[in-house]
């Protein structure tokens, strides 16, 4: 399917071209400006399902840079095309617009010494800064590659966003079925090459009953007790040592008073495994455990009492899979990393690349340079020192794929 895969791309060949040399030095010459841009974009709030303002900013930026076909698509992704001599191969270069933080979060970026502090400053503020810097470097040096690059700020990468942005882009959007390879920048670092997709399934469980007085109506089925039974069953799941598999009841709620039998109870559950078969096994165990827990609670009720009502909603699903380590895309990223004097590290994670991998599109996620900490907390920080190495590696991979 992919013309990218016909010939082995080479980072060394890209590196030998004089205009690429100038484009690489762009990142050092403009280090301060790239950081200023990251501060501007990260100061714009972008909570889950609230990415619009940040997408609008990116759209203006893409247009000002000279990208074409700039738009915000029906799902809210921001797109801009860097037109090569042809539209094949077509490479998506993406970073996610959203953060994990609620709409009332203060997104103001604070400088503290070399560090930048703000929720989302690294995840994925440094990825968004990388998109802009890469487009600038290529356009500034008037590099006209053979294939084309579609730059995308995606919505819905985090949490309950459930990859809705990249899913729309690659399955329903107007570029769907035209994309030959997919590259995502997520978080910092220069060594990481995420080529394996960590699968997950997320559920919301809601149990409802008649409710009543804790003493007077004792014997009615109790939704909180049923949730408790379900959690106890899940916690006793016989986990394999390998492949790595995890479960988490991350949120529980229900009830109104200590002396009332609750009318409702709910929990959110996250199931993960590096292997699809194991994830399916855990998934069916979990759904059976919840059903059995409710049956058990119902079995203890008095004959005339109504039954508990169970609702299990799949609120998130990310497929497992991989872009093989010996695929041209991964080999190119490995070569580019080594050319930076860094030992590459292949890993497995849950990112926007999960979706293209599940569609058979070669995809990897790379760190965008620099360092960070306290990700997904209000104390998140990013240190841009050394960022240029990550951007140089990125440029070699991008140009290696679309060819000069
Ligand atoms: Zn991220």
Produce a short descriptive summary.
Helix content is about 35%, strand content about 25%. With about 400 residues, the protein is of the alpha+beta class.
Q: How would you explain this protein's 3D organization?
A:
- Strands 1, 2, 3, 6, 7, 8, 15, 16 and 17 form a nine-stranded mixed beta sheet that branches.
- The longest helix is centred in the C-terminal third of the chain and has 24 residues, at 276-299.
- α2 (18-29) runs antiparallel to α11, α7 (223-235) runs antiparallel to α8 and α9 (328-339) runs antiparallel to α11 (387-402).
- It is built from eleven helices and 19 strands.
- The chain has helices at 11-15, 18-29, 31-42, 52-65, 125-140, 164-171, 223-235, 276-299, 328-339, 354-359, 387-402, and strands at 68-72, 78-82, 90-96, 110-112, 115-117, 148-154, 181-185, 192-197, 199-208, 212-213, 245-254, 260-261, 264-273, 309-318, 321-322, 345-349, 363-366, 371-373, 381-383.
- The mean pLDDT is 95.
- β1 (68-72) and β2 (78-82) form a beta hairpin.
- By secondary structure, the chain is an alpha+beta fold.
- Zinc ion is lined by residues 96, 123-124, 157, 186-187.
- Residues 96, 123-124, 157, 186-187 line the site of zinc ion (ZN).
How large a portion of the residues is in β-strands, by DSSP E? 25-35%
Annotation, overall tally of beta strands: 19
- Ligand kinds: zinc ion
The description of the largest β-sheet is: 9 strands, mixed
Q: SSE order, as H and E? A: HHHHEEEEEHEHEEEEHEEEHEEHEHEEEH
Mean pLDDT: 95
Q: What's the oligomerization state?
A: single chain
Q: What structural class do you assign from the helix and strand content?
A: alpha+beta
Identify low-pLDDT runs: none
Cα radius of gyration in angstroms: 24 Å
Name the shape in a single word: elongated
- In angstroms, what separates the terminal alpha carbons? 21 Å
Given the structure, what is the number of helices? 11
- What percentage of residues falls in helices of 4 or more residues? 25-40%
